[in-house]
Every structure is written in C-alpha cells, then in structure tokens.
Design a protein that fits this description.
The chain is an alpha/beta fold. It folds into two domains: about 5-235, Phosphoenolpyruvate-binding domains (TIM Barrel); about 240-265, no CATH class. The chain is about 45% helix and about 15% strand. It is built from eleven helices and eight strands. The chain has helices at about 5-15, 25-35, 45-50, 60-75, 95-110, 120-130, 145-150, 160-175, 185-195, 215-220, 240-255, and strands at about 20-25, 40-45, 80-85, 110-115, 135-140, 180-185, 200-205, 210-215. It has an eight-stranded parallel barrel, surrounded by seven helices. Strand 1 (about 20-25), helix 2 and strand 2 (about 40-45) form a beta-alpha-beta unit. Helix 2 (about 25-35) packs across helix 4 (about 60-75) and helix 4 packs parallel to helix 5.
C-alpha cells in the first residue's frame, strides 16, 4: 500500500470508493491500524475524555495534542495523519490559528489539521490553507460547542438548523477545506450535504451516504468506560478481554503460580 495523501482522499470520492478513518492516540494502535489499511488516522481531541479522563474535549492543550500526534506519526507508514486543533487554539485570532496549525504540522509530522466550525470559521480555514496546511473541517455536533448545544445533541433536525448546516458545508468547501466531518446529523441531511459537495464527507453518526466513516477507536474496540452513543458499533469487547486477563494475572501472582519456571531465568 502506498502513502496516502489528500489527493488520494479526493480521488476516492471521485471514484465512489468509501474512505475509512479511525482515531489513534499512541504508537501501538497507530501501527496496527496502519497495517490494517485504514486511510486516515485522526489524532482527535477526543483524547481528552478517552485517554486523559477529562469530562469533555475542552481541556486538551496544544502540547498534549502534539505529544500524541508524534507517537501516532511514528507508528504509521501509509495512512494520512490528521491532527485536531484543540479548543481555543484557533478561535482567538487568525494569526493564532496559523501559528498553532503550523506548530502542529512542524512538530509532529502530521499532514493536515482538523477544526470545528462552519461559516464562522471560513476565514480561518482560508488563512490556514493559504499557507499550504490542509484543513479537514467539522460541522454538525461539534464537541467543542457542547455548552452552546446543551450537551451532545443531534443537530439538523429542524429546518433552520438544516439550512445552516448546508450553508456551513458550502462555506468550508469554498474556504479550501479538503474534506468535511459530519457528526450527529440525520441520515437524509448527511446524504444531501454529501451530494452537494465536491470534497469528501466523513460521517460519524451521519448515516451511510457519507463518502467515508470515522469511529473513536476505543469505541470500535469495546473499551467503553462511559455511555455509548447510539451510532457506535463495537467490533469486539476488549474491556472484557482485558479485565479477564488482569484478573487471571492477579490470581496467579497471589497464589504463587506466576512466575513459573518457564518465565524465570536460570
């Protein structure tokens, strides 16, 4: 498999091929996902609640994001690596946004950044792409906006919201985003946006008609430590597997079965 670029992602939409994306936060899983053939690895600010134990994504810092992205980049050979822009790393000013996006790319080896927002972030997206940093946009249920939205709520069910999201999608495309994440929106709206755009859409709780799909890797692997969104599908149950392995280890240490002769030096 050859190295994936943003041109390949666009080509996949043009050819009607589905795009796969998974979150990754460390070297081992990044390497495993890359070897499995996933096209895009997203170092999401979801690392806040998933890895660091924060209540939401808002406390994640640029430094934390850079640390995890470096690890992911070391683990991949072929996948395109996209790094999230943390809350308040791009909202204060366009100069801040360019500086932080440049720092993420320069210090990690990622090929693109992702930021949340539609029409309100179009000028920022344009400014970042103007300095040759590819941007993946993100609209719909945007986790950095949970206080305004009153929590993680499906967006776009009302006509006014639907019209705004359609305008947001067209705005980020016009601003130069190379792709767009659609999160937590009705299936029909996901389909409508996907058909209107020339850039690829990546869905998460946005229905089957998007050009690709993304899941948080810990959700896919069954490592649920909190409520599971309805759009999540677990493909295995590592929580149960890990708990069972740890329980067996504790039992063998406490009963003197481990280490045995096989696992000791002579």
């Amino acid at each position: 498999m050859k190295k994936i670029t943003i041109l390949d992602i666009q080509r996949m939409k043009d050819e009607g091929k589905k795009i796969t994306m998974l979150t990754a936060y460390d070297y081992p899983l990044a390497r495993l996902f890359d070897e499995s053939g996933v096209e895009i690895l997203l170092v999401g600010d979801s690392l806040g609640p998933v890895v660091a134990g924060y209540d939401n994504t808002l406390p994640v810092t640029v430094e934390e994001l850079i640390y995890h992205t470096r690890a992911v980049v070391r683990g991949r050979e072929n996948a395109l690596v996209v790094a999230d822009m943390p809350f308040m790393s791009y909202q204060v000013s366009i100069e801040d946004a360019k500086r932080n996006a440049g720092r993420v790319i320069k210090e990690t080896g990622a090929e693109a950044v992702k930021l949340e927002g539609g029409q309100n972030m179009a000028d920022t997206i344009r400014a970042i792409t103007d300095i040759d940093i590819p941007v993946m946009a993100h609209i719909g249920l945007t986790p950095q906006s949970i206080h305004r939205m009153g929590g993680h709520r499906v967006q776009g069910r009302e006509e006014k919201q639907r019209e705004k999201l359609l305008a947001d999608a067209l705005a980020v495309q016009e601003a130069g985003a190379f792709s767009l994440v659609l999160e937590g929106i009705p299936t029909k709206l996901g389909e409508e946006i996907t058909k209107k755009l020339t850039i690829p859409t990546i869905g998460i709780g946005a229905g089957i008609h998007c050009d690709g799909q993304v899941l948080v890797s810990h959700d896919l692997l069954g490592l649920f430590l909190g409520p599971r969104p309805s759009f999540v599908k677990a493909y295995c149950n590592l929580k149960e597997t890990i708990s069972g392995a740890v329980g067996k280890y504790l039992d063998e240490v406490r009963t003197g079965k481990f280490p045995d002769e096989e696992h000791s030096y002579r």
